[in-house]
Design goal:
The protein has 550 residues and is an alpha/beta fold. The protein has a domain of 291 residues. The chain has 19 helices and 14 strands. Helix 9 links the parallel strand 10 and strand 11. Helix 9 packs parallel to helix 11 and helix 16 runs antiparallel to helix 17. The longest helix is centred in the C-terminal third of the chain and has 27 residues. Bound molecules: iron/sulfur cluster. Iron/sulfur cluster binds next to loops.
Amino acid sequence: MPTVVLTADRGTFTDYGGISTLGYVACMPARIVPRPLMNLLFTPEMKSYRSGEAVYAPYALRKVEAALLERGVDVIVVPPNNLDKVIDENTKVLGITVHDPRGLSPVSMKLTMLFGGGPAWNAVFFDEMGRRIWQLKKKYGFRVVAGGPATWQLVLERPEWVDTIFNGEAEVDLPNIIKDAIEGRQIPSDVKGRDPKVEEIPTIKKPSRLGEVQVTRGCPRGCQFCSITPETFRSIPLKDILEEVKLNISHGQKSVELLTDDILLYGSNRLRTNHDAVVELFRSVKEAGAEQIYFPHISAPPVVTDEKTVLEISDIAEYKKYRAEAPVVGLESGSKRIIYKYMRGKSFPFKPEEWGEVIVNATSILNKASITPCYTMTIGYPDETDDDVQESIDLVSNLFSSGNRSWVFPLPVIPMGSTKISKNPFPALKTLPSKYWELLYLSWKNDLRVTREVFPDMTGRMFSSTLRGIVNLLMDRTLAHVEEVFKELMETKGEKAYEYSLIDLNSITGVLRSIYWFFRAQMSGVSPVGIPSIEQTAVKFSSTPGKIGK
Ligand code: SF4
């Protein structure tokens, strides 16, 4: 077997049944979503060959694999369930990429706080993988190197079985660390990888999941809560992009996901949209054989300044037919003060005072292009007041009354280790501005309506028609109850969240206790006693394999 094995936990190493947005379910507390649903619908295991090697893999692992192959390293990428199959005495290094190993991403933090605390599925999956790695490591003595966008979560409490935490981009320095480990030399416990020039970034050699192909790296806007580097924004050369697109298509992928932090940044200079470069990108990808083209992120200001570009890419990608549901757009805040202080570049070339108008106009243009944006907000800066949140409520109310279609998710702002606000405290139910709950209810009422409208279109992309039917049915039943939950959270200013900590749908006693709690609460209207603190359960975790949660 190869000397280097690359993998990730199940919450990362999955294709989410064909719809990447279903990955957000892994941010829910594990108590609330039964394991069989995760296994079957939301984080299904990915296909592999007899050797254990993955047929398709997350793009980040494919990129590291390519960098190692170009340096002559013998490497294999495997889903986490195949680790036992491929690791043996030949294994010298196990590399893992981490995306939310402790469940501390903004979405996981929000959902675990709102639904009663406890580890998110992402954290459970990471812990399960950690236990397995720990046992295999004791047997075979290989070294473990962890990289990826969420290494900051591992720095907060380091797993014993990780030898090196590799921060930053992999291409320049990671191959040297891995070669040192293979040859038995000492490797550092913490590394900051240097950023490669575009010509130093190799193309992937084997297919990625969901047709993922990266088109830009970095973002020049420089928001203080974001870990993406402003200094080193790069666009990947079109010939490299097309090489990867063709590789994926030749391995059976029909759609292409253009990975970027803002699709309109492609080929840009100093935040000015390069219309020709963006249009040529879409046209070339379509001509290379992509049936559908999607992208995960776009910013509002260039949508407004470059409507023509948005409409043209929509035509090329045939969004009237395929629709582009839920690319993420940062709305962040309606407060001019908060925008000036924490994200001055966000609204460029517009002023923060114009932000509300920019958001409404961008939504109207995106809808015209058959794109439904998914706005995320960051709420809960230490100095954020109810007046600031009221400005956000006003902006969101204007957006909804404009008649355009969008989702809005107000998330607690997370002090990620690699950002300028890393010293801020983590958000907690009691420290969020009290008007947050009003904003949350207003947003969710709208989001549930929009979800009902577009969900059948989104699940149309799922690989299996049977699973599509099950997901549609489940979603319909779930949505019917969720609005009530958010109303109660607003009326109790979040206190209701403490009651949800008694729900546990992953053990028999948990289910019985949940049923008892449900009926008791219905009959008496009294909150149950002995509920653990959500602040404790949401943020704490164990680095010791074998333990999950508090
Ligand atoms: S615009 Fe988005 S990607 Fe760019 S720095 Fe701000 S939050 Fe990060």
